[in-house]
Amino acid sequence: MTFPSFGRPEHLLQDLRYSARMLRRNPGFAVVTIATLALGIGMTTAMFSVVNGVLLKTLPYPDADRLVWIAPHAPWYENSVSRADYLLWKDQAHSFAAFTAYSNEERALVYQGQPTTVQLAFITGDFWSISGAKPALGRIFTPHERDQLVLSWPLFQRRFGGDPAVIGKSLTIDGRTFTIAGVLPGNFRFVFPPDMYAGDPIPEIEAYIPIPDGHEAPGDPMRETAETGPIPTWVRVVGRLRTDASFASAEAEMQVIFDRVRRIPNVYGRWPEEKMLFIPLAERVAGQQRTALIMLFGAVGFVLLIAGANFANLLMARASTREREIAVRSALGASRGHLIRHFLVESIWLAALGGAAGLLLARWAVAIAIRIGAHAVPRLADVQIDLPVMLFAAAITLAIGIVFGLTPVAGLRRNAASESVKGEGATFSAGAGQVRFRRWLVTMEFALAIVLLSGAALLLKSFWRMNDFPPGFEPNKLLVMNVSLGGPKYFRHWPEQSAYIEELVSRAGRLPGVEAVGIQCGTLHQGLEQVGDVAHEKEKDAFAVRYVSARFFHAIRAPLIAGRWPRDEEWRDLKDVVLVNQTFARAYGGSGDILGKHIRGGLVDAVIIGVVGDFKDFQLDSSPEAQVYLPYPMAPAILNMRVFVRTEN
Q1: Is the CB of residue 39 less than 8 Å from the CB of residue 303?
Q2: How far apart are CA 584 and CA 588, in angstroms?
Q3: What would you report as the CA-atom Rg of the chain, rounded to the nearest whole angstrom?
Q4: By CB count within 10 A, which of 120, 259, 302, 468 is most buried?
Q5: H-helix or E-strand spanning residue 139
Q6: Dihedral pair phi/psi, residue 532, rounded to 5°
Q7: Closest by alpha carbon to 608, among 582, 634, 580, 627?
Q8: CB-based contacts of 67: which residues, under 8 Å, 6+ apart?
Q9: DSSP strands (E only) in 389-440
Q10: Backbone angles phi, psi at 463, to 5 degrees
């Protein structure tokens, strides 16, 4: 088949006007065809916009392709490093033009006597240089300043009414006074991986304060004191490679430094399983979403192919009813190339209408995706139908219009016109080649549909099987809320914190229909050893230490496998007793054998009095990790907690 010459512009306009008249005469055909294309093009465009915004777009930072994520990595955790270790990394690494550490926590901010809870980023080093942030108002603090604060634009508008006069004003965070130095612009985005529990929504950073220098001991995380103010115990590290440093050489240098620093004793212990993670920052930001998004993009690609095959079949079916029209036009002198041009213009015209409707559908789909998943997928909130996405939609629309639009004339025979005029021909679609092609299209649609249905069935099966994993507790009728304590009344004042928590638990417990109330104050991985255990006397195994209240297990209804529950006074008076889970017990030979054993390490120095059944609160299909349960007053930070309320109904 030869491709036609489109001739002069007036010829194209004639074909466009003629095609428009034909579509008006067949509104049912036009509506079905446009709807079919809109579905395929719209879903593909929407998915491409997500893939483009989350995976393909560079991070909104200078030299983003040279930013790397550096972190200790072990089977039970990733990402966090002590402040002292970070400083050693920074001082000894020479392959980096910039180095920064950061962390984030929810803290209470008090301005003019009115408290509000904000997601606070603690930053140090070259954070502003790496992120490329410039102030919209005021200034940004230098790495060596203290007690300065920079607001995000949303917080500036919401809490301070967008008033520029707040620059230079004072506010307090956890009892310490900070000065508002500046406000970041509305287009600045914090896309660094935040500190969060697995399954928690991605927090939006609302304000920034510096991590003050000093007060670190070798191998010991920096702790907040009255002199330092609120600071994180652990930080995350990002570096920007020098222009003359390759990724491989920087990784090799950091591996040497990492191994050297690991030999420095740490109060929480170091373990052999710990390795160094050194990957591009963009890859770390995308995380586990990369595979899922690529699979979804492939699935909507199948939908687009099915829509294209349907489009081709609709065009061929319509062409079979127009053989007399084609015959008359041929008899009047229309060449084969002119007929092909007409069909091509008509198909592109239909595809363009379907593509325009598909763009509207894509905008709607993206808006729903952002509304549902912005707190679960990084960078999804910034996804939009921008110029690259519209160019992609235009490209697939044109491709569908050309590739599938030529199918009606693929089997056009030279004698079809004369046979039709004489009444001798069967129909325009009666050619054996076209019949075979239409059968092939139907077969392709059926095969693609089978692939999609099989994939959907496997996903449903995986979802079903994942929900078959027992969580180990009863999630029904269980309410969970996050509570943050802040302000001078509670900052580093345990009696006031304790009084508040006891009052909270007491009042919640007296509410109608409440069966039990429990408290959890975070989890910390520590190296522990069993006293007197010869097999482990020279090394410490790593376990998750979770800080909870005595009634926590009753609130979530976790089963007691062996031993006994702690009495309220034992937990309240911080007696040297702990609970462990089944996985911990198996590590030492069995549930019954572990009772009465003495374990020690970090903040733990106690006797095991009970074994709790394994339970999962992050992922149902994950393997449970060994855990030790301590009274929540022993937690390193008591300002943030989760409250679990068991109700009757």
Answers
A1: yes
A2: 7
A3: 33
A4: 120
A5: none
A6: 85, 0
A7: 580
A8: 59, 61, 130, 238, 239, 240, 241, 280, 281, 282
A9: none
A10: -65, -40
Q: What is the pLDDT of residues 498-522, one digit of tens each?
A: 788 888 888 998 899 999 999 888 7
Could you tell me the pLDDT band of residue 203, with boundaries at 50, 70 and 90? Answer: confident
Residue that the structure tokens 């920007």 belong to: 240
Counting Cα atoms < 13 Å in the Cβ hemisphere of 609 gives 15
Cα–Cα distance between 522 and 525 in angstroms, integer?
10
Is 50 exceeded by the pLDDT of residue 79? yes
CA 460 to chain centre: 21
Opening angle at CA 189, ends 482 and 483, nearest 5: 10
For 8-42, b/e burial (b = at least 16 CB within 10 A) is: eeeeeeebeeebeebbeeeeebbeebbebbbbbbb
Q: What are phi and psi of 355, to 5 degrees?
A: -65, -40
3-state helix, strand, coil in the chain (%, to 5): 45, 20, 35
User: Is the CB of residue 508 less than 8 Å from the CB of residue 480?
Assistant: no
58 dihedral zone (left: phi>0; alpha: psi -120 to 50; beta): beta
pTM of the model: 0.74
632 neighbors 498 (Cβ within 8 angstroms):
no
Strands 67-74 and 234-241, bridge-based pairing:
antiparallel
Tracing tokens 């993206």 back to the chain, one arrives at 366
Residue type, 129: S
Taking Cα atoms as reference points, which of 97, 191, 190, 193 lies closest to residue 151?
190
The residues facing 479 across adjacent strands are 645
- Tokens matching residue 606: 């106690």
Q: Which of 408, 396, 434 is nearest to 305 (CA)?
A: 396
Q: Where are the alpha helices (DSSP H) in 485-636?
A: 494-510, 552-556, 568-572, 582-587, 591-594
Tell me, what amino acid is at 89? W
Point out which residues pair with 245 in neighbouring strands: none
Yes or no: say if 577 and 511 are a contact pair by the CB < 8 Å rule: no
Write phi, then psi, for 648 (nearest 5 degrees).
-80, -30
Q: What DSSP designation does 341 have?
A: H
Reported as a single tens digit per residue, the pLDDT across 95-126 is 999 999 998 888 878 888 888 888 999 999 89
Q: Mark 223-237 as b/e (b = at least 16 C-beta within 10 Å).
A: ebeeebbbbbbbbbb
Between 12 and 406, residue with greater pLDDT: 406
CA pair distance 133, 191, nearest whole angstrom: 12
d(CA 649, CA 630): 30
The one-letter code for the residue type at 401 is G
